[in-house]
C-alpha cells in the first residue's frame, strides 16, 4: 500500500519568498487573507495550517528591514478565529519558548484545543537573542546552551499541566520544580480534546534534533532536497529509539515551495519568473550584504560581486534565523558567478531562492511521492509565494493526483489533528 | 445636555466555566441582537475557565457588530504579547476589540508563574497602567500609512513611519515597534474597573471605559465626576471617557415585584452592587440614573447569563428601545463608534509632522 503523506499550509512569511509586488498579492494582516488560505487548505484536506512568528521586526544595518512583507498578527488569536470558519483543519501556532511562561502558554494552547475541538498544535521555537529580548521582561538574554534545556522543560511542564485534570474532569494540583521553572497550583482548563496539543519543533542543531526526538510529534525542517532530506530523516528517526519511541511517532515535514505549469517546461519558466520577482534589485543587494556582513549599498545589482571579503563577525542583520558560514557562502557565490558570468542579482537569483518542486502537476505529484516512499519526508509544509491565493494551483491540480495515487487522503477520517497525523492519543499521566 | 447623552450598555457573558465555542457565541449573538455596545468575558488565573481573549477571537467571525472585551491580566503576562494579542483581536473582529485590564493579586497566582511574589495593589496597578500605556504606544508604533508597497523602490513599508517606543516602566521595558500593524480602531478600547483607589487612578489616566460601583444616582454621579476630574488632571479631555456603572443583575424572579427598598436603587453587596428584580424594574433603574445624567451607561453582569441575558435583551433593552433611550441597531461598525469615541490620532505621526516629541 502507498504510504500516505501529510500536508500543511504555511501562511506566506515576512521574507523574500513572499512576492508582495504581484498585483494578485493581498493583505498580510486582514483576517480575510487568513480565512481564504485556511479554507483553501481545508478544501485540499490538508493536515494543518501553519503560522510562523517573529517577536521583533527584522533589522538590517540598524534599520528596520523594509524590502519584504512586514507585520503579522499574533498567531494563537488568529487561529482561534480561524477555528470559527474551518471544521477539520489543524491549527498550528509558532510560539517562542524563551519569551513565554509555561502556565500561560499551556492554558492558551489548551483553550485553542477546546475551542477548535481538537485541532491545536504548537511549533516550539527557541531564541537566545538579546535583540528580541529587548521587547520582554526577561530582557536581553538566555545563554545559547540553555535554549533547548528551557524548551524541553517548558514542553514537559506544559504536558504536566495538560495532565493535571483527570480525563473525567477533576482538577488536581500540580507542582513542577526544575532548573528553569518552579511552579505549582491548579490549572484552569480541563484536559482538552487531544489530551495534549500536537508539538512541532523547528530547529536544526544537534540539540534541536535531540529535543525533537525526545518530545516532538512533528519536525518542521529546511532539508527539502531528496539527498539532504534522506540524511536528515535517517538521522532524526535513529534518535527516537533511545526515548522508547517508534519511527512513526515523529513526522518529518520539510518546508517546501512548489511551482506548477501545464508542462514541465512552462513550470520552469514560471519558476524563473517568480525567482526574479522575489529578488528585486534592492533585495539582491540586501542578500549580498547579509552574506558579506558589510554595507554594499553602493554596488550595482547588475554588476559583478564585490572583491572585498565578508566580515564574519558582523551583526549587520538582526532577527533572522542563522545563516551558514559567510566565508563558505561567499566562496560559493564567487565560483558560481565566475563560472556562469552572473551579476550580483543573477547570482542571488541562482543561489538563494530555488523552488523545491517545479513541474507539471503529474511531475510534482510523482516527486512528492518519491520523497515519501524513499524516506526523505513524511509530508510537506507548503510555503506559497502569494497571499492568499498561492496555494490554489496546488490544491486544484496536484492534490487530486495525489489522491488518485492513494498518496493522500480524499476525506478526513477523524476530527482531530492527531488523527490526521496518525498520532496516538497521549497516555494520561495523572 | 446630560439628558441627551447616548446610553451605553455592556454585558458580561461569563458564568460557570465553559470551554466550548457554541455557548459563548450564542450569548454574544444575543447581546448583538440587543445592539449592546460590547460583551465582556472575565478571566483570571485564579479559577477555572478558558483564556478569555481566545474565546472572543473564536466568537469574532460568528458576530458582526458587537464589541468584544476580554479581561487580560498584566501582572504575570508580557506587556508586548498582551498588546499584540489585543491588536490581533481587533484585526480579526474588524475593529471591535477592547480589553479589560486587570491585575493578579494572590500568592496562588504568583506560584503558577514562579517569577515573582505577590505584590500590593498599588504596585500592581502602577504596572497595569504602564502595561496599558505601552500597549497604546505599540498600537501607535506603526503609522496608518506605513505600508506603502512601492514597487519602484522595492519597499514594502516606509520605515520612517515605524517607531521604537523605548518604554521604560518600573518593572519592564519594551523597545518596539509592534510586530502587528496598527489595528483598525487605531487603539482598541481599554477598560478598567475603577472601584478600588489604585485602579481608579490607572483608569483615569489610561482607560477609555471606566466601571464604577454605586448604590444611588448621586453616588454614581460623584464617582463619575471624580474619574473625569482625575482624567483632566492628567491632561485628558474627560469627554473621551465613558463611565459605566457596574451592576450584577439577578432577573430570576422576573414576574415578582422588586424587593422593598430597591425602587431607589440597587443594594450594595460585597465589592459590587447587586440588583434583583424584573427586566422592567431594571429598565426603570437604567432610565432614572441615565436621565439624571449620573452615568454614561451600565455594565451588567447577569447572575445566570443563559437566563438573565435573554431577559435583559428581550425585556430591559426592548423597553429602553421602545422609550427611544437606546439604539435599535448598531449604526457604526467598530466598538469605538458604538461608544462615540473617535479613532485616536497617532502620537508618533503627530510628533513627526509637528516636529514635537511623542
Ligand atoms: C524550518 C524552520 C522554521 C522556523 N521558524 C521559526 C519561526 O517562525 N519563528 C522563530 O522565532 N524561529 C523559527 N525558527 C528558528 C528555530 O526556532 C531556531 O531558533 C533556529 O533554527 C536555531 O536553532 P538550531 O540551532 O537548533 O537550528 C525556524 C527554524 C526552522 C528550521
Broad CATH class of the largest domain in chain A: Alpha Beta
SSE pattern of chain A: EHEEEHEHEHHEEEHEHEEHHEHHEHEHH
Number of strands of chain B: 14
* Major β-sheet profile of chain A: 8 strands, parallel, barrel
β-strand percent of chain B reads: 15-25%
CATH superfamily of the largest domain in chain B: Luciferase-like domain
Q: What structural class do you assign from the helix and strand content of chain B? A: alpha/beta
General form of chain A: globular
What is the CATH C-level name of the largest domain in chain B?
A: Alpha Beta
**Count of individual domains of chain A:** 2
How much β-strand is present in the residues of chain A?
A: 5-15%
What is the mean pLDDT of chain B? Answer: 93
* Overall mean pLDDT of chain A: 94
Architecture (CATH level 2) name of the largest domain in chain A? Alpha-Beta Barrel
> Low-confidence segments of chain A, ≥5 residues, pLDDT <50?
none
**CATH topological fold name of the largest domain in chain A:** TIM Barrel
* Radius of gyration of chain B using CA atoms only: 20 Å
- Which parts of chain B are unreliable, with pLDDT below 50 for 5 consecutive residues or more? 256-264
By DSSP (H or I, 4+ residues per run), the number of helices of chain B equals: 11
* Main sheet specs of chain B: 8 strands, parallel, barrel
Domain Luciferase-like (chain A): 25-376
Keywords (chain A): Flavoprotein, FMN, Monooxygenase, Oxidoreductase
Family (chain A): Belongs to the NtaA/SnaA/DszA monooxygenase family.
GO molecular function (chain A): monooxygenase activity
Amino acid at each position: 500500500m502507498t504510504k500516505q503523506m501529510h500536508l500543511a499550509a504555511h501562511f506566506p512569511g515576512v521574507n523574500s519568498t513572499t512576492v508582495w509586488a504581484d498585483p494578485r498579492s493581498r493583505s498580510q494582516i486582514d483576517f480575510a487573507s487568513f480565512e481564504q488560505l485556511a479554507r483553501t487548505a481545508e478544501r485540499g484536506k490538508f493536515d494543518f495550517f501553519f503560522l510562523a512568528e517573529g517577536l521583533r521586526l527584522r533589522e538590517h544595518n540598524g534599520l528596520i528591514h523594509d524590502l519584504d512583507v512586514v507585520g503579522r498578527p499574533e498567531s494563537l488569536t488568529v487561529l482561534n478565529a480561524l477555528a470559527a470558519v474551518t471544521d477539520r483543519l489543524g491549527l498550528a501556532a509558532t510560539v517562542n519558548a524563551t519569551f513565554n511562561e509555561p502556565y500561560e502558554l499551556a492554558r492558551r494552547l489548551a483553550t485553542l484545543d477546546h475551542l477548535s475541538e481538537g485541532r491545536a498544535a504548537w511549533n516550539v521555537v527557541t531564541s537566545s537573542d538579546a535583540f528580541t529580548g529587548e521587547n520582554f521582561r526577561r530582557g536581553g538574554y538566555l545563554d545559547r546552551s540553555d535554549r533547548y534545556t528551557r524548551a524541553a522543560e517548558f514542553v514537559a511542564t506544559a504536558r504536566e499541566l495538560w495532565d493535571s485534570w483527570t480525563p473525567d474532569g477533576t482538577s488536581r494540583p500540580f507542582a513542577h520544580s526544575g532548573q528553569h521553572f518552579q511552579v505549582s497550583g491548579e490549572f484552569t482548563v480541563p484536559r482538552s480534546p487531544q489530551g495534549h496539543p500536537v508539538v512541532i519543533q523547528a530547529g536544526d542543531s544537534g540539540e534541536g534534533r535531540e529535543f525533537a526526538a525526545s518530545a516532538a510529534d512533528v519536525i518542521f525542517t529546511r532539508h527539502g532536497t531528496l539527498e539532504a532530506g534522506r540524511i536528515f530523516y535517517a538521522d532524526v528517526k535513529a534518535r527516537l529509539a533511545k526515548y522508547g519511541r517508534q519511527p512513526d511517532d515523529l513526522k518529518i515535514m520539510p518546508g517546501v515551495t512548489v511551482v506548477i505549469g501545464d508542462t514541465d517546461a512552462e513550470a520552469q519558466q514560471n519558476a524563473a519568473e517568480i525567482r526574479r520577482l522575489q529578488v528585486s534589485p534592492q533585495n539582491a543587494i540586501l542578500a549580498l550584504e547579509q552574506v558579506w556582513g558589510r554595507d554594499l549599498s553602493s554596488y550595482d545589482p547588475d554588476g559583478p560581486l564585490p572583491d572585498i571579503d565578508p566580515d564574519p563577525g558582523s551583526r549587520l542583520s538582526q532577527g533572522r534565523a542563522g545563516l551558514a558560514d559567510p566565508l563558505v557562502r561567499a566562496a560559493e557565490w564567487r565560483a558560481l558567478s565566475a563560472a556562469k558570468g552572473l551579476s550580483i542579482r543573477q547570482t542571488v537569483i541562482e543561489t538563494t531562492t530555488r523552488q523545491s518542486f517545479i513541474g507539471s502537476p503529474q511531475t510534482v505529484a510523482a516527486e512528492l511521492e518519491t520523497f515519501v516512499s524513499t524516506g526523505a519526508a513524511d509530508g510537506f509544509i507548503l510555503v506559497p509565494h502569494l497571499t492568499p491565493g498561492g496555494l490554489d494551483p496546488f490544491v486544484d491540480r496536484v492534490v487530486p493526483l495525489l489522491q488518485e495515487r492513494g498518496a493522500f487522503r480524499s476525506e478526513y477520517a477523524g476530527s482531530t489533528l492527531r488523527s490526521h497525523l496518525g498520532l496516538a492519543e497521549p497516555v494520561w499521566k495523572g | 445636555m446630560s439628558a441627551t447623552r447616548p446610553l451605553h450598555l455592556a454585558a458580561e457573558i461569563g458564568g460557570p466555566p465553559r470551554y466550548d465555542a457554541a455557548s459563548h457565541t450564542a450569548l454574544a449573538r444575543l447581546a448583538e441582537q440587543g445592539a449592546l455596545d460590547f460583551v465582556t468575558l472575565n478571566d483570571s488565573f485564579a479559577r477555572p475557565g478558558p483564556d478569555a481573549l481566545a474565546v472572543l477571537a473564536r466568537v469574532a467571525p460568528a458576530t458582526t457588530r458587537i464589541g468584544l472585551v476580554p479581561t487580560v491580566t498584566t501582572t504575570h503576562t508580557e506587556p508586548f504579547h498582551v498588546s499584540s494579542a489585543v491588536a490581533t483581536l481587533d484585526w480579526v473582529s474588524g475593529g471591535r476589540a477592547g480589553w479589560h485590564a486587570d491585575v493578579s493579586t494572590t500568592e496562588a497566582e504568583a506560584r503558577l508563574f514562579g517569577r515573582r511574589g505577590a505584590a500590593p495593589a498599588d504596585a500592581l496597578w502602577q504596572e497595569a497602567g504602564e502595561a496599558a500605556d505601552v500597549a497604546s504606544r505599540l498600537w501607535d508604533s506603526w503609522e496608518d500609512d506605513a505600508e506603502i508597497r512601492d514597487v519602484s523602490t522595492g519597499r514594502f513599508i516606509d520605515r520612517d513611519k515605524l517607531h521604537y517606543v523605548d518604554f521604560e516602566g518600573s518593572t519592564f521595558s519594551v523597545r518596539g515597534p509592534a510586530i502587528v500593524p496598527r489595528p483598525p480602531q487605531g487603539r482598541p478600547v481599554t477598560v478598567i474597573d475603577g472601584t478600588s483607589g489604585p485602579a481608579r487612578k490607572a483608569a483615569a489616566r489610561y482607560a477609555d471605559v471606566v466601571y464604577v460601583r454605586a448604590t444611588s444616582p448621586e453616588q454614581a454621579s460623584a464617582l463619575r465626576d471624580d474619574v473625569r476630574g482625575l482624567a483632566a488632571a492628567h491632561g485628558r479631555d474627560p469627554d473621551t471617557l465613558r463611565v459605566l456603572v457596574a451592576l450584577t443583575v439577578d432577573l430570576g424572579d422576573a414576574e415578582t415585584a422588586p424587593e422593598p427598598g430597591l425602587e431607589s436603587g440597587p443594594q450594595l453587596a460585597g465589592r459590587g452592587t447587586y440588583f434583583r428584580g424584573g427586566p422592567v424594574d431594571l429598565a426603570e433603574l437604567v432610565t432614572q440614573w441615565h436621565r439624571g445624567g449620573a452615568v454614561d451607561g451600565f455594565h451588567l453582569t447577569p447572575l445566570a447569563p443563559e437566563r438573565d441575558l435573554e431577559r435583559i435583551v428581550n425585556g430591559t433593552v426592548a423597553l429602553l428601545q421602545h422609550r427611544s433611550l437606546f439604539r435599535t441597531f448598531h449604526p457604526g461598525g467598530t466598538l469605538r463608534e458604538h461608544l462615540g469615541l473617535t479613532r485616536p490620532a497617532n502620537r508618533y505621526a503627530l510628533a513627526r509632522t509637528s516636529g514635537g516629541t511623542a
